[in-house]
Specification:
2 domains, 4-stranded antiparallel sheet, 2 helices
Length: 189
């Protein structure tokens, strides 16, 4: 019995000795793949961190207006002063600022000399045009929409921008009567 037990112990030792190199190779391979995965993720993150915003022109029902790289209309907020944003917290959730990781890029028809950035309270860089911080509008769901034009929200009006860096003010063709419904922003259906 003792002899049988010793034989099994020797066999177990041999099996373990044969398995150790395979386990070492497997662990080494897993470590190498993990390092490669982290390197790739870091490279992607660094690439995203270097992404610069692009401002272009697009024809809309308001005429030619500034748009972001997705073709969404860019707006100015009349409450902004001295190249600084007055829109944060819930305002910025309805009117997301155009953020850049570096110097913004001018698309065709856009004057690069009018492009700039301003530092937001959270430290990010918001793109400016003719010293106006730029925003999109959450209810502009498709490229070229101008649903934010002329809206009064968060204490001032919002306007799309022309290539000159001035507000595009749509002439009103009808008279609208507003009533107070107690409804929260955005307007209720």
């Amino acid at each position: 019995m003792k002899e049988l037990s010793q034989r099994r112990s020797r066999q177990d030792v041999r099996v373990i000795r044969r398995s150790i190199p395979r386990m070492v190779v497997a662990l080494g391979l897993a470590a190498v793949l993990g390092v490669l995965g982290f390197s790739a993720a870091g490279s992607i993150a660094r690439g995203a961190a270097r992404a610069n915003a692009t401002v272009s022109l697009r024809k809309t029902k308001l005429g030619m207006v500034l748009v972001n790289s997705s073709g969404h209309t860019l707006y100015l907020f009349e409450k902004d002063r001295n190249d600084k944003s007055a829109c944060s917290a819930s305002c910025a959730s309805f009117w997301p600022p155009l953020i850049s990781r570096g110097k913004p890029t001018a698309g065709p028809g856009v004057k690069a000399s009018l492009l700039g950035t301003t530092r937001r309270s959270n430290g990010s860089l918001q793109v400016t045009y003719n010293k106006h911080p730029l925003y999109t509008f959450a209810l502009d769901r498709q490229a070229g929409q101008t649903n934010g034009e002329g809206r009064f929200a968060f204490g001032a009006k919002w306007y799309a921008l022309s290539a000159r860096g001035t507000a595009v003010i749509k002439a009103s063709t009808t008279t609208t009567t507003m009533t107070t419904t107690g409804c929260a922003y955005p307007p209720c259906p």
